[in-house]
Design brief:
Structural class: alpha+beta
Largest sheet: 5 strands, antiparallel
Bound molecules: 6-diazenyl-5-OXO-L-norleucine
CATH architecture: 3-Layer(aba) Sandwich
Strand order of the largest sheet: 2-1-7-6-5
Strand content: 5-15%
CATH topology: Beta-lactamase
Radius of gyration: 18 Å
């Protein structure tokens, strides 16, 4: 497959396209990023690396971190994990409170904020040094010890986290949060403030495309049966109330973040990460979705 040629065509199309999206501003620090940033990195299992644009510049991974947090939690627990968080699409915005009330504090899935907060709570209970251990986990699957958080983004989200605090309080009232709310919120904001480039995310995401193994040293990070489940949750829940639209247009499991990143995988073939900060009304990168739609169309390959 001539991936570089296809990426060059996508770059030309994207440069000519006017985005109608908005850079996230509810975390004030994120609004400082240029709306013009644009990068793509594709990592093919058989033929290596392809990219264009700002693909080596780090950005705030935000909700993409929820995939890594779920992976770490699933490496420590078996099916009992899913007694505290379900695996159904929510059809609601990522920070919605409404379903939690009538579903007794059990979040619909681990990728909406409520579900990710339960996963944070689980990691705090199980890890010796939650922040360090979690960051080290990401560094190990990305083969890069220099990955770290952006302190300004972390401090910025801390000041505007009332809705996540509300989710935690509601779930705590249903006894689905075991640790102190402040501690869970702090860990969750920390994980969202991690910065990675498209290239680094594509390397880290290789475990989802390669049956749980890193490509460079073949280390089995998670059992294939668990990777299958994570990919299924990415497919059905990775884009909140736009998961159906993403499946319809792109046809790959993936995960977005309000920093403008989308990481996606084609099992057995490749990983691909796109970064373009302007978001559509559902909170997903507008040009990112377009780029991935063009990739699966021009290659003629998707999981469907
Ligand atoms: O909790 C929040 O609102 C952010 N830290 C993460 C949200 C996010 O990335 C949703 N993604 N599209």
């Amino acid at each position: 497959m001539e991936y570089q040629k296809i990426l060059n065509q996508i770059e030309a199309e994207l440069t000519a396209k006017q985005s109608t999206g908005q850079v996230a501003s509810y975390i004030p620090e994120l609004s400082k990023i240029s709306s013009k940033k644009l990068g793509v990195h594709l990592y093919c299992i058989n033929s290596g690396h392809y990219n264009f644009g700002d693909s080596t510049e780090r950005f705030s991974i935000q909700s993409i971190s929820k995939v890594f947090a779920l992976t770490k939690a699933m490496s420590l627990l078996d099916d009992e994990l899913f007694e505290r968080v379900d695996v159904e699409p929510s059809g609601d915005p990522f920070n919605s409170l409404v379903q939690l009330e009538y579903e007794q504090g059990i979040p619909r899935n681990p990728f909406i904020n409520a579900g990710a907060l339960v996963i944070s709570d689980i990691l705090i209970s199980l890890l010796d040094n939650p922040k360090e251990d979690f960051l080290r986990f990401i560094q190990s699957i990305a083969h890069n010890d220099s990955i770290k958080i952006n302190n300004e983004v972390y401090e910025s989200e801390k000041k505007y986290s009332h809705r996540n605090a509300a989710l935690l309080n509601l779930m705590k009232s249903f006894r689905n949060i075991k640790n102190d709310i402040e501690v869970v919120l702090d860990f969750y904001i920390f994980q969202c403030a991690i910065e990675m480039s498209c290239e680094e995310l594509s390397i880290a995401f290789m475990i989802y495309a390669n049956q749980g193994k890193t490509l460079s040293d073949g280390h089995q990070v998670l059992a294939p049966r668990k990777i299958k489940r994570i990919n299924a949750i990415m497919q059905t829940c990775g884009f909140y109330d736009e998961a159906g639209e993403f499946s319809f247009r792109v046809g790959l499991p993936g995960k977005s973040g309000v920093g403008g990143g989308i990481a996606a995988i084609h099992p057995g073939q490749y990983t691909v990460t796109v970064w373009s900060p302007p978001l559509n009304p559902k909170g997903n990168s507008e040009l990112g979705m377009y780029a991935l739609e063009r990739l699966t169309t021009l290659t003629g390959l998707s999981i469907f």
